[in-house]
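pasting for ref. prot 1 ->
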Amino acid sequence: MTNRKLSDANLVDHQVGERMRRRRILLGLTQDQLADALAISYQQIQKYETGANRVSAGRLAQISEVLEVQPGWFFGAPDKVETAGGSSRAVIELVRNFSRIEDERVRTHLMALVRSLAGRGDELGDTVMAPETAPNGREKGFVD
């Protein structure tokens, strides 16, 4: 058994809180929504996310269920994709609005545009198909 310092435990608390925050944001949830799902206050969510309060094992199991991850996920190394700007308000708004788009074709085109703008289309191995055009030269499925 290795000796761990108290500061190591605090670092784990901060890591768990940060991963909790990033996953919540990735799912487009507010602190209020997560708190409601767990039947606790949003202030408690804030304390967990900042590492001010430790998350008990039972609560971590509940949180992982709501955030759709395994409990051990909170202790792993952060994903590179997730860390890039994952906490900004713009990302939250983007995820919320994107999830409201019902037309799958529009979502596919939007993802292709975002990948292209980010310079990652080729890197991800995605093939972006040219949109179908109607006889009038306009793209099918879109209305002016």
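and prot 2 ->
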Amino acid sequence: MEINGLPLHPLAVHAAVVLAPLVALLALASLVPAWRDRLRWPLVVGAVIAIGAVVLAFVSGNSFRDANEFFSTPPSEITRQIDHHHSLALKLLWTSIGFSVVALVSGLLHPKEGALRWLLGVLLAAGAVAVIVLVALTGDAGAKAVWGGFNG
């Protein structure tokens, strides 16, 4: 997976790193009752776009890893770091999917009150925080895998 000879993964990652936390913050803001109606559709659209970015980053990362002989060498510090990055990316993928589903249900059902509103709010808040934390951890692990050996 390349664009103009460059691996797609380093390019796709930037969209996921920006969009996923942005939509998570939007979800948290949508929990404020006065903002809920105004943020309903931006949250729905943002959730769809953000999950697309996360999926693209994950799929392109797998393709990048499989296409590069360097990553299939015997275990080393760099391959362990890449494995750690991949493990976190897998968690981020599934967490983002769950968060996006809750954001879509919340936006499309749009309950004004009641137990469902409360439950969706709790799930939305927990998912948003988890996405933000996992984006930071996954990105940090990827950056350390790539740039950790270049200290000079």
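The first strand starts at residue 2 and ends at 3.
The chain has a mean pLDDT of 89.
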